[in-house]
Amino acid sequence: MPELPEMETYRQQLTRLIIGVPITGVDVTRPKSLNVDPEEFAGKLIGNRIVRIERRAKHLLFHLATGEILLLHLMLGGWMFFGTQEEKPDRTIQVDIHLGNNSLSFIGLRLGYLHLHTPEVTHKLLQKLGPEPFELNLTQFRNVLRSKRGNLKVTFVDQTFLSGIGNCYSDEICFEAGLLPLRKVPSLTDNEQLQLYQAMQALLREAIAVGGYMEEPLFVGDRLTGQYNPKCRVYDRKDEPCLRCGSPIIQTEVSSRKCFYCAHCQK
Asked: Out of the domains of life, which is the source (predicted)?
């Protein structure tokens, strides 16, 4: 599932590609991906423009010139492609927004959605999310941790605790901090809390800088999207040697989620 770095990469790349471009058409092959009738959806979009793209947690908010907001959550397996008809991947596209000669295609929206809302409704829908990791200083981070009693893995993927971190980066942050994802939050010392905070800040910024771990390019010639994938320290590297000590990476399951760590490097 795309997490904070992936959605931030999409936001940055799409901002330079589609802002201000008139929407000339809409195709919908899966009405369940929307929250309104496809005809109403098309009527609201055609002739409109996207004037700003905002990211909140794992969501993208496409602000339209008329004031409405397209709220996107890709969920598991969702991704986007921007390009001409000839460049489109040979995949089923659930929603296609045409912008002149190009289209922004939404693919894999079996669990995800692209909903049309007013700003007020959008705010209400997102208000339960926890703070963004980059919004917190160390003191604020410690204060947020105090209310948690579970292990680090479950805590980091809880979107009411911090927003935007999921399976991949929870494991990567714990490895960077030298802490087992199975550690209970109350057991962390002050120094370990500092290690965790610094690891979170540094690793998320690194992942954003190299385009996250999405494997599919956003457009033909995209050399940024997905460049973090080969840089993963532990995630999806079961039995491969740890990059620090050479011990095999362990895969386990925590609350029905895959979890990867090095038993030698992480305490």
From this structure: Bacteria
